[in-house]
Amino acid sequence: MRILVVEDERDLNRIISKRLAAAGYSVDSCYDGLEALDYLASAEYDAAVFDVMMPKLDGFEAVRRMRGGGDATPVLFLTARDAVADRVEGLDLGANDYLVKPFAFDELLARIRAMTRKSAGAATSVFSCGGLVLDEAAHKVTRDGEAVELSAKEFAVLDYLIRNKGAVLSREAIENKVWNYDWEGGTNVVDVYMSYLRRKIDAGRGTKLIHTVRGVGWVLREEQ
Q: What is the chain's Cα-based Rg?
């Protein structure tokens, strides 16, 4: 999933972004509300983490403008402002959750998973297709009960596929969802990772789950 981190404290922004990337998310980051609105207008995000007190445009006003413009991206406010009135204001503006600094990073991850599940209409963080099971919370994948070791980026690609099982996803859609604006790799990066996943998930098995739709993209489905 692709996450936007909006935090003007640059050290904290960098730490949050690195921890989210290590957890398998594609992460973009910026430092004020105006910049955040530009990012949100340019890409589709699964969630955004907003500080409240920021220069140029604070988090409350940025989310007010998001919701006023019809942007339903799930938002979590991450702030030192812990008064009940502040939490009420943030939630009434359209935020999905509110976490007070200092915070435990595991709790931040759990809250992001919870609000993205709700946004996607999913009741669980465990997804399956045939004998393939992906557990987002535990960051584990199994095929027919056997553990499958994946890198963070392989996990992210598979997560996108299994969340959209049965749907054909284009190269551009996968790249935009899994890689951020800083990506400077080759144009065949998605093809390379699909090859990695095929080798780890389908090689040596009678039932193939990852299928190429020539000229269109890839689809995860149970099919001989």
A: 18
